[in-house]
Amino acid sequence: MALITLALPYAEGLHWFKQVRDLTWPILLESGQIEATGLGGSVDEEMSLGARFDIVVAAPVARVIHRRPYTDVLVGQQRSRTEADPLQVIQQWLQPHPVVRTAEIPFAGGALGYFAYDFGRSIESLPELAQQDVPLPELMVGIYDWAIVVDHHARQCKLVSHLRYLERSDLDQLHARLMSGANEPHSEPFAVVGEVQANLDQAAYAQAFARVKDYIRAGDCYQINLAQRFAVEVRGDPCEAYDQFRQLSRAPFMALMQVEDEAGQPIAILSMSPERFLQVVDQQVETRPIKGTRPRHPDAVQDAAIAQELSLCIKDRAENLMIVDLLRNDIGKVCAVGSVKVEALFKLQRFTNVHHLVSIVRGQLAPGFHALDLLRGCFPGGSITGAPKLRAMEIIEELEPHRRGIYCGSIGYIGFDGCMDTNIAIRTAVITQDRMTFFAGGGIVADSDCAKEYQETFDKASQFFKLVAAFKTQK
C-alpha cells in the first residue's frame, strides 16, 4: 500500500509527544543544529547536521523486550517468550512488509527503541563482573505502524503510515484526536531530591586509569574508553526534565522515551547525543565517530584557541584514527568490497559545552544484507569501547563498577523501508525507580594524562549537572 499522509499543524516534536504520551510507549526523536567549522572558521557543509526532522511514535503494535536469554514479545495483553535472537525477532516483524522509501519522510513505521550497551553480551561472550543495580532490559524496541514527522525546513507536520498492521479507520481516528488538541495529562512536577553521587572518586578513577595504562603497555589494547557513573534521586515528570535539558543543550540526535519493561516498571530515557552511530539510506551506510574533546570557553578568543589546539592535537587525531580504522573494519563485514571509504577526518564540531573531532566513514550495504545485519556487525560502537573492541569491553567490565545499561548503546529506528538511523547513547540519562543515572567517559591511550581525563568526564557531564541544579532550586 502507498504511504498515507495526513497533514497536521506545524509544531515541534515535543508538542506532539505530549499529545500522545498517555498512549503506550511514546518516543520522541528530535534533531538539533550543530556548528561545524574548519580551522579558518568557515562552515563545513559536509559535517553540518541540521535541525530538520522530529519523529514521534506511540502505541506500538508489538513491543520486543530482551533480557538474556529470553525475548518477550507483547502484543496488546498477549505475551510470548522465545530464546531466539532478538534481532531476528525484530526482522520478522519488518520483513513481511517491505516498502519503498518515500523522499523527505525519514521514518513512516517500523522498529524504534533502544539497544543497550549490554546487548553486546548477546553478540559477544563477555565476563560478568560489574554490578547491575539498574536492572534494565538489554533491548526495548517497539514495532510502530504510524509516525508523526515534523520537517523544520519545510515547516510542515504529517501523520504518516503504510498501514502494515492497522486499519485506515485507526489512522483517521488518531488524526482526529491530534487535530482536536487533546489535553495533556496532569503530572507531578519534576524535582531533584538528593545529591549527585559518583561511582568513582578521583582516587578510584586514578587506580582504574593506571590499570588501563598497564594493559596498553602490555599490548592488550591501544585505547580504552573509561567512564564513571553519576546517580541522584528524583521525583516527578521526566518529560519536564527533558524539556529543560533541551533548553540547556541541543544535539543532532536527541531522544525522549517513556516506556515500561515486561513487568510494567516505568523507564524514562533522556538523550542529547552528539554522535551518529549508523545510518542506512538506500543501502548507503554512514557512521560518524567522535574522538577528541575540549571544553568550551565563554570568551570567544580563548574558545577559538581551544578549538584550534584540539584540531591540531596529534594525540586526539591518533585516537580518532584508531576508531575510524575499527569502524572501517566493522562496517566492512556487511558492505560491498571496495565500497568503504573515509570521507572526512578530524573535523571540528562545536556543541554547547564542548568541542569535538568528528570523522565520517561511508560504504554500500552488500546485496543480501539488512540494516540489522549492519547493527549486529558493529555493535556496540567502537568510539565508546576502545581498540581492539572485544578486549576493550572485557577491560571495561573489569574496571567500571556498574553495568553501563543504555549508556554507549544506541537509540534509533529501522524502518519498513530498510532505512536506519541510530545514535550512540552518550549524554544520556535513565530515570527509573525514582533515580536518575548518567555516565561520562573518555578514551585513554598511552600518553593520556589522568587529571585531564578525569576532568573531561565532568566537562562532558556538565549539562546534567546544570539540569540537576535547575530542579534542586524547585524543591
Task: Explain this structure.
The chain has 475 residues and is an alpha+beta fold. The protein has one domain: Anthranilate synthase. The chain is 27% helix and 32% strand. The chain has 11 helices and 26 strands. Strands 1, 2, 4, 10, 11, 12, 13, 14, 15, 16, 22, 25 and 26 form a 13-stranded antiparallel sheet that branches. Strands 3, 5, 6, 7, 8, 9, 17, 18, 19, 20, 21, 23 and 24 form a 13-stranded antiparallel sheet that branches. Helix 5 crosses helix 11. The chain is globular. The N and C termini lie far apart (52 Å). The model has no long low-confidence stretch (mean pLDDT 93).
Write the layout of secondary structure elements.
Blueprint: E1 4-8, H1 13-20, E2 27-30, E3 35-37, E4 53-57, E5 62-67, E6 70-75, E7 78-82, H2 86-94, E8 110-115, E9 139-144, E10 147-151, E11 156-161, H3 168-179, E12 191-192, E13 197-198, H4 202-217, E14 223-235, H5 238-248, E15 253-260, E16 266-273, E17 276-281, E18 284-287, E19 290-295, H6 300-312, H7 314-332, E20 341-350, E21 354-364, H8 371-378, E22 386-387, H9 389-399, E23 410-415, E24 420-423, E25 428-432, E26 435-444, H10 450-460, H11 462-472
Antiparallel strand pairs: 1-11, 2-4, 2-15, 3-20, 4-10, 5-6, 5-9, 6-7, 8-9, 8-23, 10-11, 12-14, 13-14, 14-22, 14-26, 15-16, 16-25, 17-18, 17-24, 18-21, 19-21, 20-21, 23-24, 25-26
Concise summary:
The chain has 475 residues and is an alpha+beta fold. It contains 11 helices and 26 strands. It has one domain: Anthranilate synthase (4-Layer Sandwich).
CATH superfamily: Anthranilate synthase
Radius of gyration: 21 Å
Multimeric organization: single chain
On the 0 to 100 scale, the average pLDDT is 93
Q: For this structure, what is the CATH class?
A: Alpha Beta
Q: Would you report the number of β strands?
A: 26
Computed structural class: alpha+beta
CATH architecture: 4-Layer Sandwich
Q: Low-confidence segments, ≥5 residues, pLDDT <50?
A: none
| Most strands sheet | 13 strands, antiparallel
Distance between the termini: 52 Å
Number of domains: 1
